[in-house]
Amino acid sequence: MLEQFVLQLRKVARRTGLDDFELLLTLSTSIDVRIENREITIQLKRDIFSGSLRILKKSRLGFVPFTEPSPALLELGIRSALSQAQPAPFNSFAVIDGKTPSTVAFDPEVAKLLNTPAQIKDIARDMMQRTWETGRVETLEGMLHLSQETRLFTTMHSSRPVIAERTAFSAFAEVNTRDFDFVAGRKLPELVQVTQLAESVARNLPATESDPETEGLKGKTIPAILDPVFTEEMLRRLVAEHLYASTVQEGMSRYQLENQIMSPLITLSDDATMPFGESTFPVDDEGTPARRNLIVKDGILKQFLYDRTAAVRENRESTGNGRHRPVLIEEEHEAPVRCTINDILIEPGTTPLYEMIRQIEHGLLIKVLLGFHTANRTTGDFANTLYFGRIIRHGELTDLPAAGRWSVIGNALELMRKIRLASKETKATGSAVLPWLLTELTVG
Prior knowledge:
Mean pLDDT: 97
Number of strands: 22
Strand order of the largest sheet: 4-3-2-1-5-6-7
Distance between the termini: 56 Å
Structural class: alpha+beta
Helix content: 10-25%
Radius of gyration: 24 Å
């Protein structure tokens, strides 16, 4: 179906006089199984089609997002986009030469399970029952998500499109609105990891909570361990903005090449080739071959990340970071191409996590800050309420932070400079593989 649509698009391109086009298509099927307390619901979405088309004509660039495989509607969209086209930063799109290496992002076990909804529902039911049997549950929310998609990329002058099959699996569980856990990736995990997910959260949930006044920490700067969930959000929302060449060209980045921008303990890479990674695909959304970029080595900034527009401004090659990155309520196919970090990797340290915790007399483990999307992307500053985490007391994880009572103040760029330890263990979030990091934050 997708390749047939490309042939139809070529005819439309000739009729509308396009000089070039760049096309990204997806066709997906997914199942979502929701757990709400003792209720389970299942939703199937089959053969969901979406596309993003960029067009060039007479050195002007237009963009057409669409969700129907209709050449007639697409032609109307192209003519409308041409009437609003802006000066193009380049004269042509990439040309795929047919030698692009393949990438691994498809697990037949996920595809097999996707075709047996009753089995997926049984897994969810097992997860739910195990959790309620602990006797420690007031509320339970969970989700199992499975999907399979065909993804196609091509340009007008490429001899053939790049096509890859990709799968995805994730399971999420939140207990009493006080803690959660998940597994995520493109491969099917051991199912026992899924069925025991919420049960493990329930059994490890402290029965007590405490506030900053009781702990004597209000207004103090204290040790803080950053959970990989928080670290990824901080890197994507705040730190990565200063790693994009487009931000540098606008004079907004706080970083300079070969400067010490992070702790010497941090070696950070961007990767679109990692087997079964979220970003894994032979090319980015502009046709640049996928690659792994070493961004920071031992705390030293080694390179910025480029999409084609930023690269053309400096007469250099893209680093493979041109992506249709949604902002706010955009869907992927609606989003323009933006410079975007791919899967994020930080090399682990040598200190076990339990030893990191044992070294802290009084501190916090930070997992989720409420409203972190309001943080200042320009400066990296944030001041948010601690939503999920733990209090560390006398070298042990103890109470839950009292809901709404902990305000945490920091600066993402400074936090990464002040990393004192990185854990030996890592967590795969689906789009990152990160260790736990020890730094310091201020309690408001």
